[in-house]
Amino acid sequence: MLNIAFHSIYAHELPEGHRFPMLKYELLPEQLIREGICEKQNFFEPEKMLDLTPILKTHDPEYVYDLLNITLSQKAARKIGFPLSEVLIEREIIIADGTIKCCDYALKNGIAMNIAGGTHHAFTNKGEAFCMFNDQAIGANYLLEKKLAKRILIIDLDVHQGNGTAEIFKNNPNVFTFSMHGKNNYPFKKETSDLDIELDDGISDEAYLSILKETLPKLIKTHQPDFIFYLSGVDVLATDKLGKLGLTINGCKERDRFVLKTCKTNIIPVVCSMGGGYSADIKIIIEAHANTFRLAQDLFF
């Protein structure tokens, strides 16, 4: 069964001005159930972790303390972009717990999905761009700590570089970070992933997919991961307000098909986090994200 992390802290509890991008987290489950792609039992609700050990394996204790107590400096809080609140911190912890639980489901079933997540701009000791805790990094460290995986590949195909993820794992040979992102987009001062591929503005479906299909099989052959995290942001679309690439809905779907099929063919468990998506038309965002879930269901079950 396809297991999907879904939590109930959504747009109506966020600061005004930040609600529209978050509507997808409410609408996407409704769309998947309406289509019959998923049923209610496919969804599970993660928790606010009582034991913060998994987070503290990834983030500095002082930073975690400052977030939990809303004592982060104003300068550090401005970089995050949200006015900090207990609700927002709780939401980030719940997202991280969802990705951890997805790891266990993926080991059992081959794949699991977090309907949120992809908070790849969170560093060891700071947050940026609406990211406070790095859910995929936390999940990777959980797997390594529990000896459930030995070599992990993080595939980050969001339009923005996974700068926080790159920093967190820069000295960890057990985690290979691969980010394929817009060259002329945030973050303008990029970190160094194990492999960064910078893409020109307006890149077409054909060119994008050609690069991905040339690169990913080689990475798997060389790195030989036994677990994969996939950040499947749909801000690669030409319609995206914050992206500068040129992919169509179909091109984005073929991207997801190739990544998920590669995981399935190589028998490597995969956890997907949704990442960004900021097209002006919410229907486009929902359709692009829904394709990832449709493909997961078709390919794995």
Automatic annotation (TrEMBL):
<dbReference type="GO" id="GO:0040029">
    <property type="term" value="P:epigenetic regulation of gene expression"/>
</dbReference>
<dbReference type="Pfam" id="PF00850">
    <property type="entry name" value="Hist_deacetyl"/>
</dbReference>
<feature type="domain" description="Histone deacetylase">
    <location>
        <begin position="22"/>
        <end position="281"/>
    </location>
</feature>
<dbReference type="InterPro" id="IPR023696">
    <property type="entry name" value="Ureohydrolase_dom_sf"/>
</dbReference>
<dbReference type="InterPro" id="IPR037138">
    <property type="entry name" value="His_deacetylse_dom_sf"/>
</dbReference>
<dbReference type="GO" id="GO:0004407">
    <property type="term" value="F:histone deacetylase activity"/>
</dbReference>
<keyword id="KW-0378">Hydrolase</keyword>
<comment type="similarity">
    <text>Belongs to the histone deacetylase family.</text>
</comment>
<dbReference type="InterPro" id="IPR044150">
    <property type="entry name" value="HDAC_classIV"/>
</dbReference>
<protein>
    <submittedName>
        <fullName>Histone deacetylase</fullName>
    </submittedName>
</protein>
<dbReference type="InterPro" id="IPR023801">
    <property type="entry name" value="His_deacetylse_dom"/>
</dbReference>
<dbReference type="GO" id="GO:0016787">
    <property type="term" value="F:hydrolase activity"/>
</dbReference>
<dbReference type="InterPro" id="IPR000286">
    <property type="entry name" value="HDACs"/>
</dbReference>
